Model the fold of this input.
Amino acid sequence: MKKDPIRRRHVEPRSAPEHDTDTKDGGVQSVDRAMLLIETLAEDDEGYRLTDLAIRTGLSPSTIHRLLTTLEKRRFVQFDRDQSMWHIGVQSFAVGSTFARRRNFVTQAMPYLRKLRDQTRETANLAVVDDGAMVILTRVESREIMRSVTKVGGRAPMVASGLGKAFLSTYTEEDVFAIIRREGMPRLTSKSIVRAGDLCKSLHDIRERGYSVDDEEAQVGMRCVSAVVYDDRSEPLAAISVSGKASRVPDDRLPVLGKFVQEVATEMTHALGGTMPNTAKTP
Done:
């Protein structure tokens, strides 16, 4: 199935060399810089000092302070005066949550995620593709003690996550290679897949068994099992997964988790009015 070309926003370096004197399109430049500051603050829950933001963004402290002061008035950022740290503000959350609300299947998906969590005792996740990466829309946390790989709203590379590989398994080889060219194959752990041939073999195996496995490829000590939810045209709509510590997800448990994830993904597909693709093999 053919996918739309994936556009990539270059983020390295974070910004071009700065001139504090605004050019004729200074208004647009200020908006771009303000968005850059919000994106940077969203990277770390601990927040950033002004000097840290200057290093991270390449903007001058005076420009950053001017922009942050304006954003603070609109509650997009907030300033901890005791620690002199800047953080994401409540208005950023309010605006960002609209993305999840627009995906009107999120609310409908929650009972199925809870069911998956209860069946497996692991964290259940729901994600979609956005600009070549997987974005976590929501999750139902395990009652076990664990550290989630990616927070809600966070992004994960398609080639290095169970959710992403589940999605990629529905793509043509041409589309997979287009994503590799645009996004690369980052080595996040020693088990990350960094060769295109190895990824293609992994995707073949996923198509055969119906679910994907992230074997500590995104984060050391964490495993993930994922399957795809389809829309009414049998196109991939989202992916769901269960994730847990590798010590709780040994090899012999993977088929069991895979079966649960597949079944719930199929149930969710039908509940959302979707259609599972015809995977029947001809003799």
Notes: The chain has nine helices and eight strands. The radius of gyration is 21 Å. Residues 1-24 have pLDDT under 50 and may be disordered. The CA atoms of residues 49 and 84 lie 6 Å apart.
